[in-house]
Automatic annotation (TrEMBL):
Domain Peptidase S26: 16-221
Top EC class, one word: hydrolase
Membrane topology: Single-pass type II membrane protein
Protein name: Signal peptidase I
Length: 249
């Protein structure tokens, strides 16, 4: 084989490699934009449902698509297309209204037109108290982030969606609020860790439908202790195998 033929073959092989890489990147972009997007949980605001170190997939098509479905949220259109409204009780990822470069994850509590209020730690929707049952206490710092037992409750929304919430303090600032009236095209979001969640009761405010990114679907990996999934040597002691492939309720 001549030098020219060898060079041509080498160039052809390089071109094929580049082509495969470009196709893989485009496929990954399509999947991330329209189907699934991975997220990690950076804080304890959704405990005990989601823990720091949980890695989950979010379904992008659940609520249709907005400009925030695309990387970097380019302002190419407004509103949502192919949209479906979130259901009360969904755990959803959304862009923070005051800074759309930041992703938040909370539970959808209030729908457009709802009146939402906390009274003595009990959630009220449209003037009616939400069913709330004390289950006992959790004495596991990995779940509560506390070195003492924490009260845990089961809350059941009017549509039957049920989940656990933590009560770190019986008289926290978020246990008694004014009544919030959710505007059209907006949602009221709350964390399950009621006394340690920055949500619609506070600075987050009402979340526009356009800011919704997707619905949390399944935990595909979980590791404790602030460890990274890439730190394989920590898996034997820090990985939470019981949480892997758990559906998010």
């Amino acid at each position: 084989m001549s030098v020219a033929e060898k060079s041509k073959k080498k160039a052809g092989g390089l071109g094929e490699t580049v082509s495969v890489i470009v196709q893989a990147l485009l496929l990954a972009l399509v999947i991330r934009t329209f189907l699934f997007q991975p997220f990690s949980i950076p804080s304890g605001s959704m405990r005990p449902t989601l823990l720091e170190g949980d890695y989950l997939f979010v379904t992008k098509w659940a609520y249709g698509y907005s400009r925030h479905s695309l990387p970097f949220s380019p302002p190419i259109f407004s509103g949502r297309i192919f949209g479906s409204a979130p259901e009360r009780g969904d755990v959803a990822v959304f862009k923070l209204p005051t800074n759309t470069s930041i992703d938040y994850i909370k539970r959808v509590i209030g729908l457009p037109g709802d009146r939402i209020q906390m009274r003595e730690g009990v959630l009220h929707i449209n003037g009616e108290p939400v069913e709330r049952e004390k289950l006992g206490v959790i004495d596991d710092p990995d779940i509560t982030e506390m070195t003492r037992p924490v009260d845990v409750y089961r809350e059941t929304l009017p549509n039957g969606v049920s989940y656990e919430t933590l009560d770190l303090s019986p008289n926290s600032i978020g246990d008694d609020t004014r009544e919030f009236v959710v505007p059209e095209g907006h949602y009221f979001m709350m964390g399950d860790n009621r006394d340690n969640s920055t949500d619609s009761r506070f600075s987050v405010g009402f979340v526009p439908a356009e800011n919704l990114v997707g619905r949390a679907n399944v935990i595909f990996f979980s590791i404790a202790g602030g460890a990274s999934p890439l730190e394989l040597w920590k898996w034997p002691t820090e990985m939470r195998p019981g949480r892997i492939l758990n559906w998010v309720d």
